[in-house]
Write a structure and sequence with these properties.
Rossmann fold, 5-stranded mixed β-sheet, about 15% strand, alpha/beta, about 450 residues, 13 helices
Length: about 450
């Protein structure tokens, strides 16, 4: 068949977006996994049947001209963690799958068989993601002694590479995932699956992910590369987007030295989004401004300085506490090789007009949500919102004309996600204020 309309970069990014589908639902772990697997059957061949399906899937004909001809080969697997009260979170906290294509045409390079390891983004409804992975940067883990099954933090020695405790935790979770019995390559971990492959010598493997996974995908690729677990592949590439900084300067240098911008002999491309082993980020997206200090100093006023004292106070507190946390380990958080993409401020969200400068915290988070999502992959016009042209995908991937939902699954609306984000940030700020007040009282008592 003819080449799909999306180039290799866009296809890989599209696969990363599909990993995020589980974040749009609430339910039990088994229900969430089954729903994600059902959703993937629209896009991929050979997805094992679930729910009302009788046979392995054949990708919908509307997908092939856009995304290309992909097969699901591992997973999807996901995890539903427990909250501080020991209760299941009711959302997908992390998710992962592997897809394969016999022939991908690389711009400026050859046509190769490809495996893609697609990692899900932060689930906005997951407090676990926020607290345990995204925001856990005040402690660091020495990369040279890192054991994903036992996260041990240590003092920064300025010589070795270090990653944040949150990144270290996330990699441990991903490596512990087991493909369910009804999924592809059942009963195996990602490492076991990769070890069992015997690909052609020129086969490429690509790690990708958005948001949280924009930090996890390069870190996972580097870990498996250094563990000699990717030797069967001719080329290893990474395509992270919108990710927070996973580690400090020595780690960034280690990643950059291990994964050059292009394989030998490939020709660089003109598009801002067209580079491998590079974290691509919208310059109006708050998330990738963390955790490099010079970028975090822009967070509060990224959409203009709010004239509302309450809103301005919250945003300044968010920025200040984020900087304080990132500086605690004395490890200079540094972005891996990266490419900024030009964002544009948006006037309309799902709940109406968005003011900028933001008049309320809802304005700010609504803008943040759009900049972190639709500005990368586009939004179709609706009765209440105009279209948005994405900076990697100009418009979203095709979607089914009718939807099926696994019994017990509940949809999460965009407005719910925005309110969840506001709640998560407010709770994080309050916890820091409480900690600061407690320290002040203890200090006064000592005096």
């Amino acid at each position: 068949m003819t080449n799909p309309s999306l180039d290799a970069y866009q296809q890989v990014f599209g696969l990363a977006c599909l990993a995020n589908r589980a974040g749009g639902y609430k339910g039990s772990c088994s229900q969430l996994q089954e729903q994600l697997q059902y959703d993937l059957s629209f896009y991929f061949n050979n997805v094992p049947p679930v729910a009302d399906q009788q046979n392995p899937s054949i990708a919908d004909p509307s997908v092939l001209p856009t995304l290309g001809n992909w097969n699901l080969v591992w997973g999807p697997a996901l995890v539903e963690e427990k909250d501080s009260y020991g209760q299941p979170t009711g959302v997908a906290d992390n998710a992962l799958y592997v897809a394969q294509c016999d022939a991908v045409a690389f711009p400026g390079g050859p046509i190769l068989p490809v495996y893609v390891v697609a990692i899900a983004a932060t689930n906005p409804a997951s407090l676990y993601d926020w607290e345990t992975e995204d925001f856990a940067v005040s402690e660091v883990v020495n990369w040279t002694t890192y054991n994903p099954s036992e996260i041990i933090t240590s003092e920064y020695n300025k010589k070795d590479p270090y990653i944040s405790k949150g990144t270290a935790t996330g990699i441990g979770i991903l490596l512990g995932l087991i493909s369910p019995e009804a999924a592809a390559s059942p009963g195996t971990t990602l490492q076991q699956f990769l070890a069992g492959l015997q690909p052609d010598a020129e086969t490429a493997i690509i790690f990708c992910g958005h948001s949280l996974a924009g930090a996890l995908s390069p870190t996972l690729a580097l870990y498996l590369q250094e563990q000699q677990q990717l030797k069967a592949f001719g080329i290893t590439l990474v395509y992270p987007t919108a990710g927070p900084t996973p580690g400090e300067v020595n780690f960034a240098n280690r990643f950059n030295n291990t994964f050059p911008p292009l394989p030998s002999g490939w020709v660089s491309q003109p598009g801002d989004y067209q580079s491998w082993n590079t974290m691509h980020w919208n310059d109006l997206d708050v998330v990738p401004h963390a955790w490099q200090e010079v970028n975090m100093e822009l967070i509060a006023d990224l959409y203009g300085k709010s004239p509302d004292p309450y809103t301005s106070g919250i945003l300044n507190a968010l920025q200040d506490f984020a900087i304080i946390d990132s500086l605690k380990p004395d490890a200079p958080y540094t972005m891996i090789r990266n490419q900024s993409l030009p964002g544009t401020l948006q006037h309309y969200g799902s709940s109406g007009k968005i003011a900028f400068p933001p008049q309320s915290i809802h304005d700010y988070i609504s803008q943040l949500f759009l900049q972190h999502t639709y500005l990368y992959y586009g939004r179709l016009a609706s009765k209440s919102t105009p279209a948005i042209s994405g900076i990697i995908l100009s418009q979203p991937l095709p979607i089914p004309k009718t939807n099926y939902y696994v019994p017990g699954i509940q949809l999460v609306t965009e407005d719910e996600l925005i309110l969840k984000i506001i709640g998560q940030i407010s709770q994080w700020i309050k916890s820091h204020i409480h900690f600061t007040e407690k320290q002040s009282i203890e200090t006064e008592a000592d005096i």
